[in-house]
Amino acid sequence: MNKEFDVMILGAGASGMMAAAWLNVHSKLRVGVIEGNDKPAAKLKISGGGKCNITNTRVSTSNFLGDDSFVEAILKQFSKDDLLKWLEDEGLRPVVRKNRYYFCPGSSDEIITILRRKSAQSTFFFSRKIIAVEKKEVFVIRTDRETFTASQVIVATGGISFKSLGASDIGVKIAQQFGHEIKTFQPALVGLTLQPDQFWMKELSGISLKVEITVGDRVLQEDMLFAHRGISGPAVLSASLYWTKGSLSIDFLPGQDIIKLCADQKKQLSSVMRLSKRFSKSFLAVVNLKDKPCNKLSVEEKQQLSQLHHYRFAPSGTFGFTKAEVSKGGVLTSGLDPKSCESRQIEGLYFVGEVADVTGELGGYNFQWAFSSGVAAADNIIKKDH
Ligand SMILES: Cc1cc2nc3c(=O)[nH]c(=O)nc-3n(C[C@H](O)[C@H](O)[C@H](O)COP(=O)(O)OP(=O)(O)OC[C@H]3O[C@@H](n4cnc5c(N)ncnc54)[C@H](O)[C@@H]3O)c2cc1C
């Protein structure tokens, strides 16, 4: 069996499969792919409830946590329009949900099938655990079964959330060993746990509301779900990307003004709030208000009520890596070339996808990042070959 390759890709997830596909289509380079699981794309398969949220109608640097200019340079090389065109040429036309999110029309197998087909010229080594990479004249990649060599290596081993799907920290270990600085991985796109003062939200488990969450200078508008362990749902998951500690603020009635809604109304407060009755009653109790006719509210009571638009509190933590859709942190992009994700200090070594310190909000941004960075690395390798 051939164990010498021009390019060895570590990890057959979203970014690794895209890099392999790109190299196969645009070059004759000998490409190998090493994967710990017995098949590729485990996260793609279960993503988006089995339909894979591929990308988003609006993709900009503001949807990512990471260095803006680095993210922009990589996204520009393989934009969401390039991705959609590529998929369409391969026979997949994603559907748009909620006017924003592109999903596979049938199941995530549709995109996995394309990636497998386009990367079929690569040699795949499944059920191998990557242990270490060394650089001699070429790169030497050690696995728990055999050792490979390659002139160039694309590290596409992802983050550390969802260990059950094969995730490991080998990517950042390789980076550190080659002198790269890393930011410790933290769970992101994950539910948030609560301090005792906010335990009232747990009582509302199962209720979902459209909210606006402000964390630092980011504003996220989407649904929020009250859960048994704390708060979750798309708005909270995206907010968790920007939250590390300290407080955030929730507007439970975005786009409306509760004080205006109350003006001269004889109606009960809880009915003017236009929210679920269970939520309204709990919220009023928390801000020490009785449910009474709007026209009986004092000035102080109106002030209390206006907390509906900026309910501020500090979550106690997150639901952790087992529930986190992604890991934020990873290999600092200051050590990578913004055109290709190639290491600035080690020629021929690339870090793509989630292992790099770029993380997207909920909504297809992480696959877009994985695909764009995979293509950027592959393109650079192809250019060098010409
Ligand atoms: C439940 C869930 C749902 C998600 N839904 C979406 C969504 O709808 N849209 C979206 O944009 N993002 C979604 N994400 C995030 C997205 O899956 C990741 O950001 C993306 O897969 C990252 O791509 P990657 O190539 O960097 O890593 P991965 O796709 O994680 O691939 C890394 C690969 O490396 C392999 N590997 C790791 N360590 C080793 C080792 N030591 N030896 C051998 N192999 C190894 C892994 O087995 C894996 O196959 C979801 C994530 C989860 C967990």
Number of domains: 2
Q: Give the full name of the CATH homologous superfamily of the largest domain.
A: FAD/NAD(P)-binding domain
Euclidean distance between termini CA atoms: 27 Å
Tell the overall outline. Answer: elongated
Number of strands: 21
Low-confidence stretches: none
Give the class from helix and strand content and strand pairing.
alpha+beta
CATH topology of the largest domain: FAD/NAD(P)-binding domain
The main β sheet shows up as: 7 strands, mixed
In the CATH scheme, the class of the largest domain would be Alpha Beta
Bound molecules: flavin-adenine dinucleotide
- Give the integer mean of the pLDDT values: 96
Any chance you could write out the topology, listing elements then pairs?
Elements: E1 4-10, H1 14-26, E2 31-34, H2 42-50, E3 53-56, E4 64-65, H3 68-77, H4 80-89, E5 95-97, E6 101-103, H5 109-118, E7 123-125, E8 130-135, E9 139-143, E10 147-155, H6 170-177, E11 182-188, E12 192-193, E13 208-215, E14 218-226, E15 230-232, H7 234-242, E16 248-251, H8 258-262, H9 269-272, H10 277-286, H11 299-305, E17 311-313, E18 317-318, E19 326-331, E20 349-351, E21 359-360, H12 365-385
Parallel strand pairs: 1-2, 1-10, 2-7, 10-20
Antiparallel strand pairs: 3-6, 4-21, 5-6, 8-9, 9-10, 11-19, 12-15, 12-18, 13-14, 13-16, 14-15, 16-17
The structure holds flavin-adenine dinucleotide (FAD).
